[in-house]
Amino acid sequence: MTTDQTGATVEPMLGAAPLELEAEPSPGRQTLWPQIPRPVFIARVIIGTAMAAAALYAPFYFDPVYNRLLSQAIYLAIAAMGLNLLTGFNGQVSIGHGFFYGVGAFTSAILMVDHGWTFEATIPVALVLNGIVGLLIGLPALRVRGLYLALVTLGLAVLFPQLATKYVEGTGGVALVRPRARDFASLIQGLDDDQWAYFLSLAIMAVLFLLAWNLVRGRIGRSMIAVRDQEIAATTVGVNLAGTKVATFAISAAYAGVAGSLSVMVDHVAAATNPIFYFQRSVEFLVAMAIGGAATIMGPAVGALALVLLRRNTEDLIEGKEILAPALYGAALIAIVFVLPEGLVGGVRRFLAWIGRRSSAKGRPPTHPIPDDSQ
Amino acid sequence: MQLFVEQVLNGIANGVVYGSVALALVLIFRTTGVLNFAQGEMALFATFISWKLTQQGLPVVGAIAVSMAIAFVSGAVIERVLIRPVETGRSPLNVVIVTLGMFLALNSLVQLIFGTDPQFMPSAFPSGGIELFTSNGRTATLQKGTLGLVLVLIAECVVLWFMLNRTKLGLKLRAVATNPDSARLHGIKAGSMLMLGWALSAAIGALAGSLVAAQRTGFDSNLMQTVLVYALAAAALGGFDSLWGAVICGIIVGVADALTIQYIDPLNGIEVVLPLALILVVLVVSPHGLFGKRTVERV
Q: Which of A65, A220, B129, B278 is deepest in the core (most CB within 10 A)?
């Protein structure tokens, strides 16, 4: 992620104006965020509206089992977005976000079961706690880069079930905390429990995605991208390298923690009985981000939905031969990477850019959108 | 003291296992620059092939040789068919995704083809142990299997080191890994070299898997999953580009693990902390591992 796109993306980053210039609208702003051709803009609006409408209508259309599947896709998307900020925008590869996810899940479950908290109150705790944990882990991560960081974080994910087994007093001596189902009852009249879980997750996801979108468009986001593309060049133009990296790590961990917390509401359990479960989760976050489209805002959501549906359908496809499911799933992942190397959102964007080029051919100046990292 | 020596020997026995898988990881990284998460599962598949061949009545050494040959060819095919098309793409993450996909797919294929029951792999080495010394009525013994594995590892290292550092072929392999474009300008067939890198590493993995499985009383499709974590730790400690580093650090990790289990009670149950802490400490002190080469970054 660092070497092959230096030429294309560093340029606007280096041109990024210092703060005081940003206050007044200057022409430099337009080169940074190029004007979008009208057909592309319309297409984006249509796609966005359709997706939002589908998301709002879905829980009334599907049955509780399917709603739970969709809620799983939502918390997966939140964690994938956290990883996207770190890996997609900041270039630090982590295969250990399952660790933060697990911390979030157990925080919520333990606060509910042992301390009688209501679920909704535990989400901010998971957020803040994971932010702090992320900060603590992000500090040594400053010294470790690329491949090594991936390995250290991988170790974290493998470590988590062992830590949980050792320190969590679950039922029957295993690390498993199961809050009562009625503690997750709907707070709004007229919404079933599964619909409530869905809408709560969706609302939190919307807020977190909006925050992420604002973050990466602003000065911090440009610092993150600059660090990803050319660390040394970024420092020479005054980007605070350590601050940016550690802050991104903490934010990213907090996202994964919220995802873990929501998973308790959706799945009604926080468990660490499978020694490689949190490693598998980490891989899922990475895969959701990559097949959706790294360094895009919609990518993690699209990728998470695709991943959950893919897994579900490969399981259905071969009744009685469950062993084969991971094989098909793995093969599907490889196939997606082959067909759409820039992810699903990257594919759509490429299609829209093609439309933009066609329209710009008819008299407009040729300003089709370069694939920027902001939207 | 007695207990200490026993634990060190245990650690070495595990350590050579980590080292042998780490060797395959390092080889593929040095020759192609890719971190292959499916390395363990590729080795697992090959291990099952050699087991199947011994079931058919082939002698162990012959079975392993055949399985290594199969792995060699498959490694080359995987590079050509699965890795190369995505390698040229924009995002290096895609290669990682493909290797993770292979990880899942191979593991489930193994279960499908060979079943989920634990199997027994005959050892290529003579059984029994060598008594080192006796005190207080207890004897410290070095298993011949462990000794054999150590010797095989040393032989592998010598051969690979010679090939990489003293032959024209090795120079080409390293040139392609360092800078494929420049290598191509010098008339090196970069594609063939990458295929060769994957093939060699798959064959080394097949050897490691077959020998490791024989060390266990039984093995199934989970054989490589914990080994891979420790092997990755060993490779990272060794600096990822040193063959000797991988082997020595594999043994360091194994011994440290065994001693932690024996002597450090607070870490009971969370021994994975140890390789993790080792990696962190080593990387904070020296970012290129214990045996890695320093590189200068160009802007």
A: B278
